[in-house]
Amino acid sequence: MKQIFLISTVILLFLCGCGDDTQQQGGTPEILVYKTKAERVPVYQEFVGEVYGKKDISIRARVAGYLEQIYFNEGTQVEKGKLLYRIESQLYDADVAAKLSGLAEAKTILANAENELNRYIPLAEVNAVSQSDLDAAQSTYEAAVAGVDAAEANLKASEINLGYTKIYSPITGIIGKTRAKVGDFVGQNPNPVILNVVSELDEILVEFFLTETDYLRFARRYIKETEEKGDKVEIKTEGPPLQLILSDGSIHKEGGRLNFIDRGVDPTTGAVLVQASFPNPTRLIRPGQYAKVRAQTDIIENGILIPQKCAMEIQGKYSVYVINKENKVETRQIDVGARISEFWLVNSGLAPDEMVVLDALQKVKPGMVINPKVTAFESTATGQN
Asked: Exposed site from 57, 224, 287, 298, fewest CB < 10 Å?
């Protein structure tokens, strides 16, 4: 019995010790919280667009023939007026020669008709020839003049076609890969008609689409703001510069501006085409790339941002843990708006100077008393959706 009593005593002492540890562990935990504040929040939206050169000029063969020579290196800069291609010219040289011969013949006919008319005029004045003979000579002369004009026009057309056998760069820019090689027959289907493309890249254009809903929202807000200022309602390029986000997530150093909105909405897609331009002094950006255009679409006065990690989402509904004045945890339903970097813009449900649990969401529960420790949250992201 004495041995049993001693064992029971040891067990009771052990349990008492465990009870003390449990109580110490169950003390008020320190939890990191984020304190809300009202601030001016610019809201951005991103649109996927395709890049074009400021000018993308297609080089075409305007006459048919075999390609004899190429005078440039693919992928390099060419100056305006540089000879790019030469098409065989024998047929066009021969045609010019034939037209020159035709012009000479027409001029000979004109000279004879003019001499005949000059001979008939004094004879008609003394009635040595009939008026009908004079009229016939006059008509022959006028026909000869028209024949010379036609021959000159034919010669000019032939010379133009001969000139088309040499193809020059219309602008200064970067030329691409040639689509025809020396010896190819060009200028007639099914052979390639477009030989190459020259792009001016000191400035690039980005085309993207706005949905009809977005367009109406932006347009109404712009019209309202413009009318409130008393200004004339028209498209302007002033305002915050646009940003261009490249495929690797980097942001183009140069800001852009809106310079074109299409006249109407495409009925098949329900979207309107928009174009923005960006300086490209280093020529880093090339036509055909896809990039995102980030535009400031709104400014929220007294907006409230919270880190995304604060919010819990269940079936599209968002809630946060809020600390009340007694340092107790409460659950609060919130309505979130735009996602800005690593933050949510809160439309409703939170007020300034409230404390929201930042982490340890699995360790807290409603009604729990905590020791809140206010901390800052720095975003590491660069983008916004």
From this structure: 224
Query: In which band, very low, low, confident or very high, does the pLDDT at 235 lie, cut at 50, 70 and 90?
Result: low
Non-local CB neighbours of 107 within 8 Å, separated by 6+ positions: 148, 151
Supply the pTM of this predicted model. 0.71
pLDDT of 278 higher than 70? yes
Strongest mean pLDDT among 26-40, 183-197, 282-296 = 282-296
The stretch 221-226 carries a mean pLDDT of: 77
In the predicted model, is pLDDT for residue 232 greater than 80? no
Rounded CA-CA distance 158/61 in Å is: 16
The mean pLDDT of the chain is 86
For the chain, the domain total comes to 3
Strand 329-340 to 343-348 pairing: antiparallel
Q: Is the dihedral of CA 169, 170, 175, 180 positive or negative?
A: negative
pLDDT at 377 over 60: yes
CATH classification of the domain holding 283:
2.40.30.170
80 in a domain, yes or no? yes
258-277 exposure pattern, b = at least 16 Cβ within 10 A, e = fewer: beeeeeebeeeeebbbbbbb
Same domain, 73 and 187: yes
Q: Is residue 100 part of a domain?
A: yes
Domain extent, residue 182, equals 62-87+168-192
Q: Is 147 left (phi over 0), alpha (psi -120 to 50) or beta?
A: alpha
Distance of alpha carbon 244 from alpha carbon 42, whole angstroms = 17
Q: Strand pairing partners for 273?
A: 209
Q: Are 53 and 152 in contact (CB under 8 A)?
A: no
> In angstroms, rounded to a whole number, what is the distance separating the alpha carbons of residues 201 and 177?
16
Same domain? For 220 and 264 the reply is yes
Q: How far apart are the first and last CA of the chain?
A: 76
Would you call 360 helix, strand, or coil by DSSP?
coil
Instruction: Please give the pLDDT value at position 236.
Output: 53
Residue at 71 is within a domain: yes
Q: What is the CATH number of the domain that holds 188?
A: 2.40.50.100
Residue 183 sits at the vertex; the CA angle it makes with 185 and 159, to the nearest 5 degrees, is 60
